[in-house]
Design brief:
Number of strands: 11
CATH class: Alpha Beta
Structural class: alpha/beta
CATH superfamily: 2-enoyl-CoA Hydratase, Chain A, domain 1
CATH topology: 2-enoyl-CoA Hydratase, Chain A, domain 1
Radius of gyration: 24 Å
Amino acid sequence: MSRTVASFFAGAPLALSRAHGEALLQMPVPAPGAEVGARALSVGAMSLTLEPGERYAIHRNIAIVPISGLLTPNAFLLERWLGWSTYHGLEATFAELAANEDVAAIVALCDSPGGYVLGIAGAAAAVAAAASVKPVHALVHPLAASACYHIASQATDITLTPGSVVGSIGCMQVSAAPVQPGMSGDQLFILSSSHARAKRPDPSTEEGQRESVRVLDAMEADFHAAVAAGRGIELADLPARLSSTDDPADGGAIFWGAEAQARGLVDRLEDAPTFWARLGAAYAPRPPRTAGRAARAQAQAARALAGL
């Protein structure tokens, strides 16, 4: 049986919309020698190309940074062969573009169900830092769920295209514990040292579940704090905005269209061509300046003096 991408995520705390990420998790891990092709980015009526290893493209003063696939801290094999983003890569990219004087604005092009909790804070902080220097526009086209939304929430603004979704804010973990002998006839036992019971909580026990939920709740608190700060929402109000019912515990849902905007999760509802046309007009390169009347008069005077 071939190894699947899910093996990269087994047992780790995740900020992931499982429903949207399941098909990606079941993909086979690409072989190291697999042929890698270029990626196409749709920018309005144009298509830009990203070669393997390239993390962004620049078009008419605007840098386009895709945030795509299942997000990991540094799984560069998945980045190179599948074109999926990594937190370390995003952190470096946004820092580089923030310092690039030829870039007037940055677009975070979101198409991800989320990924690891580990490493996400650095990527989100890099987006926030870039947004303090120049505009960072997040375009959700078609998905910014969980970890991807965490990152997008730090942008200057968020635009949602028709049919696209945001949300799934919260953390999860898929755990396993041996409960019976395996196919070999041997039963697996997992032991930890006397003062490291929390190293491997047993999810089959109430104590183990409490420990796992404690960690997930702490991660969720950081997630909520980042989204509240990025979106300008009172932290105490956020759980109710994210809930699908009147119970704040029923968060983690996805939202789209006018409801996503009403909940404060996005700023604008707009189709992709209109978005790109609007940004193109706002950040179009300025034509070179022509000499004004005073400058022409000075030049004529200089030529006259030179002829004396």
